[in-house]
Amino acid sequence: xxxxxLIPRNYKAELRKAVRGKGIYLYDDEDREYIDGCCxxxxxxxxxxxxxxxxxxxxxxxxxxxxxxSRWKNDATLEAAExxxxxxxxxxxxxxxxxxxxxxxxxxxxxARQYFVERDGKGSGKTTFIARWNSYHGSxxxxxxxxxxxxxxxxxxxxxxxxxxxxxxxCYRCPxxxxxxxxxxxxxxxxxxxxxxxxxxxxxxxxxEPVVGSTVGALNPPEGYWQRIREICTKYDVLLIADxxxxxxxxxxxxxxxxxxxxxxxxxxxxxxxxxxxxPAGGILVSQKLVDxxxxxxxxxxHGHTYNANPASAAAITATIRIMKRDGLFENAMKRGEQLxxxxxxxxxxxxxxxxxxLGLMRGIEIVANKDTKEPFPPSIKxxxxxxxxxxxxxLVIYPGxxxxxxxAGDQFLIAxxxxxxxxxxxxxLKKLRAGLEEACVRLKP
Length: 446
Ligand SMILES: Cc1ncc(COP(=O)(O)O)c(C=O)c1O
Fold this sequence. Notes:
This protein is an alpha/beta fold. The chain has 2 domains: 18-49 and 328-444, Aspartate Aminotransferase, domain 1, CATH 3.90.1150.10; 53-326, Aspartate Aminotransferase, domain 2 (3-Layer(aba) Sandwich), CATH 3.40.640. The protein has helices spanning 39-42, 51-63, 75-86, 101-120, 141-144, 150-153, 186-198, 225-235, 288-296, 311-326, 329-346, 383-393, 423-444, and strands at 18-22, 25-28, 33-36, 94-98, 128-132, 165-166, 203-208, 239-243, 267-270, 282-286, 353-359, 362-367, 396-397, 399-402, 411-415. A 7-stranded mixed β-sheet has the order 4-10-9-8-7-5-6, with helices on both faces. It has a 4-stranded mixed β-sheet with strand order 1-2-3-13. Strands 11-12-15-14 form a 4-stranded antiparallel β-sheet. Helix 3 (75-86) runs parallel beside helix 10, helix 7 packs parallel to helix 8 and helix 11 packs parallel to helix 13 (423-444). It is globular. The structure holds pyridoxal-5'-phosphate. Residues 41, 100-102, 105, 136-139, 209, 213-214, 243, 245-246, 271 line the site of pyridoxal-5'-phosphate. InterPro entries: Aminotrans_3, PyrdxlP-dep_Trfase, PyrdxlP-dep_Trfase_major, PyrdxlP-dep_Trfase_small. One of its GO terms (molecular function) is transaminase activity. It holds the Pfam family Aminotran_3. Keywords: Aminotransferase, Pyridoxal phosphate, Transferase.
């Protein structure tokens, strides 16, 4: 395929050309219509071609496109911080803006470390982050050490520091071979064991996605999991960092996913839907406790990027959140998410649909070769890619992922349409998805 001078994600990929978008739809260069059933990677939550957000960014670009954050403050970012704070849980009313998810996680890691250095002195022994297998926190050298898609990080392991990891709450394939609730949340108490093993005086924070996204396919936690994690972190003076890069800004039916359980972490990382794809944007929401130590100490966060506190991205963030609040899109995500889930459960009659899961408009399907034994397809068959291609032929875009069982085997995909989706459009998504899956069943038959 000819990419001209552009270095693409994959020179060998056969990509259709996207030329325009409107609402939940994308159009290719033959004017074929596709439902954006995954918002790219859970980004375009307001859908495509939103004139209000586009105008807000345009107006901001004409007024002030850039003024370096080390020498200037600007109204656009002050306003965006107010807007983010208006939907933030607990005391997470302090916001640091960046350009995307990996930068948000990097910022959170550095701020968390700096907090302990400023609080306890330069000799603070707190140097370790704990994360989970089957998580994705970004593609930078720093974030890859936390976890990530094995296929994407394997070749780079000598370059980064590997964080200790606990197993995820993968109830469909419980790492402890137990069932909930009789397991008494062994996967959550694993955090306590890990903190004890390392020594609480060495642990800075636990980092996790509230609903695990791209690496497992919308893995929602069992009842009580996040509350238990919060208790453990508090008990051992370990910070809790929620990676809400995918789950944040209404995706799961609440402003932030931790709101479902009334859990307040010390830091929430957000990106993707924060500006709904209209400008590169991300941020961290930080608790007063951390900000007070910083303000009373050095006063300066030892971190920064050129596009930190960028006015155009800030305008996109403010407009996005205002529209979401005004149009009741968090509530819509909850309602339409339940409708979507009911339809996905009906698809359990298909021989390759092993599990359906998720929360709000962040749903996932795990594909298996044998439903009774949960045996996956051999990785060489590329089952997730085949299902994606079958759905694409139906005019539905989904987000595939692999390797969640042992880093190699396992196929799943995310289905996460824009939060503006209507009842009739969900019905249409379900119709196209069933047709795509039925075709995949035929092509995957042994
Ligand atoms: C949960 C999670 N964290 C972090 C990231 C990294 O975000 P970005 O690709 O914007 O750097 C992603 C991206 O998919 C993500 O899903």
